[in-house]
Amino acid sequence: MALEFMDKISRFIPVIKGPKTPLSLREKMYWTVGILAIYFVLYNTYAIGVNQQAVTQPLLQLVSIIFAARIGSVITVGIGPIVLSSIVLQLIVGSGIINIEMGDTAQRARFQTLQKLAAMVIAVVESVIFVYTGYVPAASPAAVGIVMLQLALGAIMIIYLDEMMTKYGITSGINIFIAAGVSFAIVAGTFGILLPEAAAAIQAGGAAALPNALLAFGPLISAILVFLISIYVYEMKVELPLSFEQLRGIGGRLPIPFLYVSVLPVILASSLELSMTVWFRFLAGVKGSLAGLAKFIALYQPVGTAGGGTTLQLNGGIAYLISPTFPLPYSANYGGIGGYGTYFTYLATHTTQLFLPWGGFVLVPEWMHVIIYTVVLVALCIVFGKFWVEMTGQSPKALSEQLGDMGWQIPGFRRDPRIVENVLNKYIPTITVLGSIFVGLLAALATIAGAIGTGMGVLLTVGIIYMLFQQLEQERLYETYPILEKIAK
Asked: Under CATH, which number does the domain 21-273+369-488 receive?
């Protein structure tokens, strides 16, 4: 299927025009700071008509981190629609339903318009789901509609802030919003939760005062470990020698990093898993002959909220087993489970219900939840990692053609894209799979360990900062040697 029909639709979808002249690095920094300021204003603004006391923020911390959102705020939906539309369209293009050549400017523009339109539709649908299912409780029945409208408008604003950041800032909006949200969560969690916990442990006195105070910083220590491991792994790479055909003696190296696809597979895989916990909430109200199937997919049960009301929480079913719905290992006073001792006891002894349509309820140990969640996350990371390499022109075939067009070749081999492709095929597919497995495992283990800001959030932030650093280095290089930018294009 072609996308020519998007030419008529695109006239009705607003577009943020790019700068008429290339922006300097200083100007891009100014734009980035300004866009981030708008983002944080929206982040800290609750939607009018929301019952703030009934918002169960601790239960949805990971949703907030991954979607760069804050439950109950104007941007409750966050970047979810952007990521979901990207996932859906990747699958459609990968299956061959839509035929598109990303190297063609017109086709790429149509695809981007389709992606933006899909994101807007998903934004409206998710806004309705968040309010209708009680994730964002309205203060009164009369406020339901106005809250839905605000969440939808907030999500659409994020879509355009992302587009503005891409064209005027130093990186994509998705990246910078996630990094900003995680950084905010780490600082707020350290000073608002961990330090008070440690102080309370010392004030309690006794022989266990100091160990308990140190244990209170366990989530921060976990986050630091993820940070250090991620930095180390980002420096691992394979370097292939290159030579320039037209100028003898001129050579270089082609780095193929171990994390070839960075943290993008984790963003896509996590967003898909967490979106399922939101979308499947509709199944809580299914009655009749399909009720058994609904419980098998996702079992929701009522839990109390800080405001004295109740909300539905995912406590069983297939959706629960593949989702990172683990309690927080903080003190119960801060929405956690009561510390690491209680947390690990919970993982070892707790059971959840899995409804089998043909045999009723069976109990599934929580440690099985840990294993299933980890395996599914890693598998999804591999799938999305391979998809992303093909979609973004990083496959061996695409990369060999780019090197050939620029005049580079691998010493000792003929200057033939097919030969270079065969050499790259020995590295890129394997590194893509191994890198995807690693980021999936690290994200899963860090999340299970209860790192402050969530382990997955820390991993994503390190990857984003690393990519940002590379972009800044490239921008400086282009400003110093403008001819390099022309060659790269």
From this structure: 1.10.3370.10
